[in-house]
Description:
The chain is an alpha+beta fold. It has a domain at 12-131: 3-Layer(aba) Sandwich (Aminopeptidase). The protein is built from four helices and eight strands. It has helices spanning 27-35, 48-65, 110-125, 140-148; strands spanning 12-13, 17-20, 68-74, 80-87, 95-101, 130-135, 152-159, 162-170. It has an eight-stranded mixed sheet with strand order 1-2-3-4-5-6-8-7. The longest helix has 18 residues, at 48-65. The protein is globular, with a radius of gyration of 15 Å. This is GNAT family N-acetyltransferase.
Amino acid sequence: MTSEFITSVPYLHTQRLALRAYRPEDFDAFAAHLADPVSSAHLASADRQTAWRIFCSQAGQWLIYGAGWWAVEEKETGQLVGNVGAFFREESTVMELGWNTYRAFWGKGFANEAAAAVLHHAFEIRREPKVRALIASANESSLRVARRLGLTYEAETEIYGKAAGIYTRVRT
């Protein structure tokens, strides 16, 4: 785990997506995602005030750990389609990957594409020895993304009061 002081978020891109720092204008879509019980079924649903704390916390992780969350924007349209992260939980030395696609953009492969770019960043740029993702067993779409990324089941844990599998991959 690197704890260097970072004042800017690395810009990553794929064929269709730009992964960039959060902007204030991203917050409405972020808050709507967390308030939507269908979109946030495998997360902790949040009211607007709580969503603001989460949004700012995710952005601020870059300052603490040199890792955090990116806004995911479709290059062709400039639309915000979700967010993706490579971050550390408190007291964890293993980088965690996370991805969320906003409901209007489900089924387009954006989560897989963004998460693959972040996995590459974690292993090839940061040189992390291992990454993990915490995924609820009922979250079939995230389990498919994890399999495509080469993550495999390691153990069971709990997050947001719900059971979740720990899926990991070691850098080769």
